[in-house]
Amino acid sequence: MQQIVQHQLEEEGKRQRDEEVVKKKFWSKMKKYASKVPFAKEAVSMYFCAIDAKTPLYAKGIAFGALAYFISPIDAIPDALLGLGFTDDATVIAAAVTAIGKHVHAVHRDKAERFFYGEVRERQERSDGFPAAQTNG
């Protein structure tokens, strides 16, 4: 019984460390690589799922673990390798999405879409010199 409790405490500690890392570093890495990784929308949707208070603890653990792997500079395949660098990250994100997919709801995907819509608007503003359309609200 003591070993089970110890294991649960260790797992909770790991989840908390992963959560801290993800909350500190996710957005900067995503903004840098969003246009380069094919799993960007899934990762952002999973982030919103992970921070949702309604998401079960086990799903948060899976999401934060996968996102922490994406953020980590130490990968099975270094991110700097063009064409191959994010394949291990994509595999981890895909496995996590498969495992917790039923907890990634429309509200999480909608928030991800809004993030990418904003990113597209920022890139368009920089590239053509005209300000992006302003929205009220």
From TrEMBL:
UniProt entry tagged with the keyword Transmembrane: yes
Main subcellular localisation: membrane
One Gene Ontology term, aspect cellular component: endomembrane system
Domain DUF1232: start-end pairs: 59-94
InterPro entries the UniProt entry points to: DUF1232, UCP031804
Short name of any one Pfam family annotated for the protein: DUF1232
Domain of life of the organism encoding this protein: Bacteria
Name of this protein: DUF1232 domain-containing protein
Organism: Paenibacillus radicis
